[in-house]
User: Which sequence fits this backbone?
């Protein structure tokens, strides 16, 4: 509804060429899936389907890591964040580089040495099968909910601006994504992710270039942003209630993103799709560079939007309803004169959605197979396991579309749902951190810590939905809007921004603070600290309970489940000095545990051969599972000067 006295703002909707460009993007994505469904004889084993046969090169893995959580939420939400609050969000580029270093050297080596397919297999090796299943169920609920929202929210935002029917978009994207993920496996997911990242970048660049041309150069855009209080890179206020300060971005953001890139199944699965640990680490570092590029381009788009609408805010004026519509609204206004370019931008939005959804579908099928099917169906052939995996992808794809439909009835609960997604990641990171860095933690401590972590995280997060934190915002104006019959005074407002709230867990300002109880001050804490609060709760409570109930003896632990923290941080020190920092963990015995795994695998192979000779089912001997041990034929762990984890198949 256009504000009283203002002239309506007419802008073109989607043209035929825009639909053509959008359709081409979907066809290319589906085509990649078809190609990898038949290349090399198809996806015949779970190793090929879920881990791409551990044969992927570094570039597509890096691009896939980048695409997995740089979704449509990023394409629409980050520019809206910069438009509304300023450039402080851009400083996440520093956080991203810290996250990459922490994940590459402290978390990734543990998963790589164990050779797991499901990240939650680690929890069984370290604690118990119950902890493993609890983590898996949490992840499944989290991802199904998140993927449904990722599918629905951008479709809804684009419908109001472009005229693209929301359910046509939901169904076309949901079906195409499920199709190419089901038939093409991990290779199809990674190469489509690579293509979709390129489409996302093209969409950002088109907006920046045309916006700069219209403004007379990016320097002019910067000057307008400075006058509008949108330029801010450092805020050293220690108050945890400051939404984006230097401290919340660096430390709170660190825990938020390590929960994604360090222990999330979607990312762990990608690490394990390369042959060597060093290549996985290189992919992570390249992903970090890509994250910096994405946040830079998205922030520049936000400044372009502010330059165009600094004196005529589309939300306050009533031209659009929510700030998730800001980017498509801007694109249609400045780029519609070029046929197909608005379609390219919409393709970039949905490319982000596709990459997140395909990654989620593949990881969900892996977790379900490894944590719930194989423990109860141990004697199926690899061909049957692969068929089950593909069926699981199709089922989760249907659930994703169903969740998108449910989301259409949730209204404002969508923001709460995305906040819950963030709240779940913190306790899970705390659980993995407790296991990898504190060898005294036992199973009871893990259960207790995880429970308290969820309670603390949900308490603060849901409380923030009930008592919205008061967040100051730079002013916006409609003084420059075209009027009909009357002159309006310059109006400034702290407009409510749904996209920033919905996509980045921001909060709206509350005008009547006098009605807020004293406890509401707790909920004013920045959303970036939710993960930090959860991790500290899990670790502190887990250790206290572990020592009360009898700590784990570090000498009896498999040393591969403990992060090689001091070997990395004190690599220049003699072994005698480092061994004193191991806290009793016998890292020097890793080869003994590797040999034990090989013997168990050999025994398992012998048992299966015996069953085959007795006339039972025909078994394929690749990808054998023995409890937690998975080997391709007989895998020998060899050492080389360049990489300790080079896997050689004999």
Assistant:
């Amino acid at each position: 509804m256009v504000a009283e006295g203002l002239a309506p703002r007419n802008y073109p909707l989607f043209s035929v060429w825009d639909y053509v460009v959008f359709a081409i993007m979907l066809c290319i994505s589906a085509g990649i899936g078809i190609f990898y469904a038949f290349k090399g004889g198809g996806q015949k084993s779970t190793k090929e389907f879920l881990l791409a046969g551990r044969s992927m090169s570094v570039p597509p893995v890096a691009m896939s890591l980048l695409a997995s959580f740089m979704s449509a939420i990023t394409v629409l939400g980050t520019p809206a964040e910069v438009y509304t609050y300023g450039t402080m969000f851009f400083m996440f580029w520093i956080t991203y580089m810290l996250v990459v270093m922490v994940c590459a050297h402290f978390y990734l080596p543990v998963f790589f040495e164990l050779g797991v397919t499901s990240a939650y297999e680690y929890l069984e090796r370290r604690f118990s099968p119950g902890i493993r299943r609890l983590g898996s169920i949490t992840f499944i609920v989290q991802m199904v909910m998140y993927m449904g929202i990722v599918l629905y929210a951008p479709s809804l935002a684009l419908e109001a601006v472009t005229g693209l029917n929301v359910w046509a978009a939901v169904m076309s994207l949901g079906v195409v994504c499920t199709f190419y993920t089901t038939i093409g496996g991990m290779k199809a997911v990674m190469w489509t992710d690579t293509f979709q990242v390129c489409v996302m970048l093209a969409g950002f660049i088109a907006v920046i270039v045309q916006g700069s041309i219209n403004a007379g150069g990016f320097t002019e855009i910067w000057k307008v942003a400075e006058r509008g209080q949108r330029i801010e890179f450092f805020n050293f206020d220690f108050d945890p209630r400051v939404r984006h300060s230097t401290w919340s971005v660096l430390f709170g953001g660190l825990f938020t993103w390590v929960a994604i890139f360090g222990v999330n199944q979607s990312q762990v699965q990608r690490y394990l799709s390369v042959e060597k640990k060093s290549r996985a680490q290189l992919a992570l570092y390249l992903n970090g560079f890509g994250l910096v590029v994405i946040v830079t381009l998205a922030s520049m788009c936000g400044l372009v939007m502010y330059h165009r609408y600094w004196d005529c805010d589309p939300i306050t004026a009533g031209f659009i309803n929510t700030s998730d519509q800001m980017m498509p609204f801007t694109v249609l206004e400045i780029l519609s004169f070029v046929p197909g370019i608005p379609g390219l931008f919409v393709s970039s939005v949905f490319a982000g959605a596709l990459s997140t959804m395909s990654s989620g579908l593949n990881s969900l099928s892996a977790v379900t197979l490894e944590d719930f099917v194989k423990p109860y169906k141990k004697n199926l052939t690899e061909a049957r396991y692969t068929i089950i995996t593909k069926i699981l992808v199709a089922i989760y794809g249907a659930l994703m579309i169903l969740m998108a439909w449910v989301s259409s009835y949730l209204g404002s609960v969508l923001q709460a749902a995305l906040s819950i997604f963030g709240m779940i990641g913190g306790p899970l990171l705390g659980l993995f951190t407790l296991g990898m860095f504190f060898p005294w933690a036992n199973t009871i401590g893990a259960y207790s810590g995880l429970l308290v972590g969820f309670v603390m995280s949900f308490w603060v997060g849901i409380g923030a939905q009930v008592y919205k934190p008061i967040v100051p915002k730079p002013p916006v104006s409609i003084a420059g809007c075209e009027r009909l019959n009357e002159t309006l005074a310059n109006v400034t407002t702290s407009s409510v921004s749904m996209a920033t709230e919905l996509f980045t867990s921001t909060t709206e300002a509350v005008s009547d603070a006098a009605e807020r109880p004293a406890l509401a001050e707790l909920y004013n804490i920045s959303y970036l600290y939710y993960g930090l609060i959860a991790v500290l709760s899990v670790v502190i409570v887990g250790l206290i309970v572990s020592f009360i109930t009898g700590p784990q003896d570090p000498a009896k632990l498999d040393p591969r489940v403990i992060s090689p923290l001091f070997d990395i941080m004190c690599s220049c020190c003699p072994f005698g000095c480092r061994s004193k920092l191991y806290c009793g963990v016998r890292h020097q015995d890793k080869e003994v545990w590797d040999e034990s795994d090989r013997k168990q695998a050999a025994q398992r192979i012998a048992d299966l051969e015996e069953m085959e000779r007795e006339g039972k089912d025909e078994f394929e001997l690749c990808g054998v599972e023995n409890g937690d041990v998975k080997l391709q034929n007989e895998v020998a762990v060899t050492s080389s000067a360049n990489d300790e984890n080079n896997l050689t198949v004999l």
In short: The mean pLDDT is 80. The two ends are 69 Å apart (CA to CA). The beta strands are 476-477, 492-493, 622-626, 629-632, 635-638, 646-649.
